[in-house]
Write a structure and sequence with these properties.
This protein is an all-alpha fold and 174 residues long. The protein is built from two helices and no strands. The chain is rod-shaped and about 170 Å long.
Length: 174
């Protein structure tokens, strides 16, 4: 029985030693796996942080560029509106001047026609006035058309420049 007890004792000691060795091996294996997991997690965190930082920098740059584009567009619209306003002012001044001179010429012609001594002279004065009034009218229409055309060109120039710059920017980005 002493042999049996001795055998059991040795078996238990061997099993305990094996269990301890296995636990140490598993502990070391778990420690290696933990270190590997920790390294992978740190790498993932660093990569994610860099990607987030790069994305934020690109977004910030894009927002700054968009802001600059918007500012330039607003400046172009303001310049266009200013040019259009100057054109309207010039047209208004021309129309007022023409109306005034046309009124004065009409009053003068009416006074002259009223002093006619014969039907023949009346018709001649009326014909001369009508011819002069038509020539003046056509001349004024031509001047106003030139003013209007120049005003339209001037008011669209800043917008056309912005469109051209924007198209060039998009083509360069391709």
């Amino acid at each position: 029985m002493a042999d049996s007890a001795e055998t059991i004792k040795k078996t238990v000691e061997t099993a305990a030693a094996t269990a301890v060795n296995m636990a140490k091996t598993q502990g070391e294996h778990a420690k290696v796996q933990t270190e590997q997991f920790k390294a992978q997690a740190e790498t993932l965190q660093a990569t994610s942080t860099k990607a987030l930082r790069d994305t934020m920098e690109k977004t910030t740059a894009s927002m700054a560029e968009l802001s600059a584009q918007s500012k330039s567009n607003l400046e172009a619209m303001t310049a266009s509106a200013t040019a259009a306003q100057k054109g309207v002012e010039a047209l208004s001044a021309q129309a007022l001047s023409y109306s005034k001179s046309s009124w004065e010429n009409g009053v003068a012609a009416a006074q002259t026609i009223a002093q006619a001594r014969s039907i023949q002279e009346l018709i001649e004065l009326q014909t001369n006035y009508a011819k002069s009034a038509m020539e003046t009218y056509l001349s004024e229409v031509t001047k106003m058309t030139e003013t209007l055309t120049g005003s339209v060109k001037d008011s669209f120039k800043p917008i056309n420049e912005r469109v051209t710059a924007t198209v060039e920017t998009f083509q360069a980005a391709r």
